[in-house]
Amino acid sequence: xxxxxxxxxxxxxxxGTRFWPLSRARRxxxxxxxxxxxSMIQQTFARLRPLAPKKNFWVITNDLxxxxxxxxxxxxxxxxxxxxxxxxxxxxAIGLAAFLLQRRDPDAVLGMFPADHVIADEKxxxxxxxxxxxxxxxxxxxxxxxxxxxxxxxxxxxxxxxxKVDGCFRVLRFREKPDRKTAEQFLWSGNFLWNSGMFVWxxxxxxxxxxxxxxxxxxxxxxxxxxxxxxxxxxxLKKLYPKVENISIDxxxxxxxxxxxxxxxxxxxIPADFGWNDLGSWTALHEYKLNNHTKDxxxxxxxxxxxxxxxxxxxxxxxxxxxxxxxxxxxxxxxxDALLITTLQNSQDVGKVVTVLDRKKRKDLV
Amino acid sequence: xxxxxxxxxxxxxxxGTRFWPLSRARRxxxxxxxxxxxSMIQQTFARLRPLAPKKNFWVITNDLxxxxxxxxxxxxxxxxxxxxxxxxxxxxAIGLAAFLLQRRDPDAVLGMFPADHVIADEKxxxxxxxxxxxxxxxxxxxxxxxxxxxxxxxxxxxxxxxxKVDGCFRVLRFREKPDRKTAEQFLWSGNFLWNSGMFVWxxxxxxxxxxxxxxxxxxxxxxxxxxxxxxxxxxxLKKLYPKVENISIDxxxxxxxxxxxxxxxxxxxIPADFGWNDLGSWTALHEYKLNNHTKDxxxxxxxxxxxxxxxxxxxxxxxxxxxxxxxxxxxxxxxxDALLITTLQNSQDVGKVVTVLDRKKRKDLV
Lengths: 366, 366
What we know:
The structure is a homodimer. The first copy, chain A, is an alpha/beta fold. Chain A is built from eleven helices and 15 strands. The two termini of chain A are 41 Å apart. Chain A binds chain B through residues 20-21, 302-304, 306, 308-310, 313, 315, 317, 319-327, 330, 332, 334, 337-343, 345-347, 349-350, 352-353, 356-357, 362, 365, and chain B through 20-21, 302-304, 306, 308-310, 313, 315, 317, 319-327, 330, 332, 334, 337-343, 345-347, 349-350, 352-353, 356-357, 362, 365.
């Protein structure tokens, strides 16, 4: 059931360079239909839609992506698709949303959702989220959605669970991206969940937490928020927003908050089991797309295909007939102007291509 | 100096499937500019041009390729670009040319040249060829151009050299494609040359050799040759040519001839040292294109390129920006409708792709 006081805030400012050459500065990962016909952000919106009225949705993005987002999500109130004039990470982004909402609805509960994750079991997701929102609505609670790990991933932060309370857990502490050995210990202990980047809290709680842990930034954000709805907003945003700290919500609020201790912190974690995947690389996408219909681990998106003695490749070349002969573990992605050739193992390094292209000022290619 | 009695016969009926997807049934390897701005057959013509007047050139090809050859070589007398109605290998092809020329010029000397080889040192080639032609012009001699091997190649036939006579050698015998171990022995002995597929002989010699070794086919070819220049030629060719034996000139004439013994056979071999390469696969092309300007062994034909921790790749994607990240020894070839991904080691198997596409009746792709 839609909840009039629940406000999904979709964080969509990322560039997603690891999906180059498909992703570009104006067509970032969240705007691509990587996991279906709809783009990631369209899927994110559709998934959350049952929980809140359309007018409650907010998107925080940047100038380059805003036009495409408005086009992909015409249902959204245009003024609530906010373009940061400078990238300042998640704390100011969600913080601005909190101050804006506090002024509109004193009972506002915010959820922060990355725009570029996939979730297999949407029904379960909605159930978990409703439970999360009801915990967040009371007191000064902050709830994070945790994902049960199935591999010793070193690319995510972890949440160490504390006491169990009514189907959810208190948070003992947050742990930064671990090394491989530590990640294996986390996996086997069974007491650590991946930090999904999805948080829920009341606007009241978040605003006071920001004043406590990030006071200068909080004041600037309040100053901006005070102009919202007036003709001064865009100017204030452009002038003031670049002054806020460049910091993630994890570092700015969650970690200092957890230092208060398991009880006093008011931090809770919902162990979520809804088939979460952040699709962090071509390799993750390849894995995600493997199913009963794929042969020899080849995921080939093309007009036609022929694999001879070839296995475990991800090939994206729409409109072409693809022949793979005697090759394994490759990633090949073709667009109108570019061709990427790498391996599943090296696909995390694709961001380096964008770094080089940035340096060479090849704006046509990034 | 052009020799009025020398007739270059360019054999251009091959399909060159190992260069798929660039090569197609109507755009075979010899029509592609693989080794420069001109196509292979244009280069072959230009290379031979100093030795004979234009009107002396003949091309034996097939119906699918004839239109493109006429377009690429408008200098040729159209009637002398002959399309075989059925593929019957080299013996009938060069045999038909011999019977046709015997009727025009009793002193004709023919050279048979594959249309799809590259030769680095054209000056040396012409010198060698002049020597060859003068040997072929006298008596019943047959001269083959041999290439000094630089690797134990198992994909070519070999010529075992006999006695040395005035800068050339008598042929002791022809040896079929050897296994690896035999090829290594050939290489180390220093007494074996690669059979280049380039032969020179008088029309008289070849015609009598065909009557001796391939009598039924010789009669059919004579019957066709008798109609040349009349309105009956095309019908005769279409009706009779399919009846000839499907056999190479090596099997049909050279091997039985060599069995007569080193002296009696009249077989000579010119050891040619003009940088010959038959560009038999993408791998051979990659090797051919390596030079002082290539970095880390990458040959990348594209609008732009970036190789990160990538070496020894051949990538052909004209118009695209190519990024190769952490890949080695690959062959990637892109055309408007197809994308081939294989390895240098497997590039010989590309013909199998064409076999499958033939079977699937994908005429659009072969």
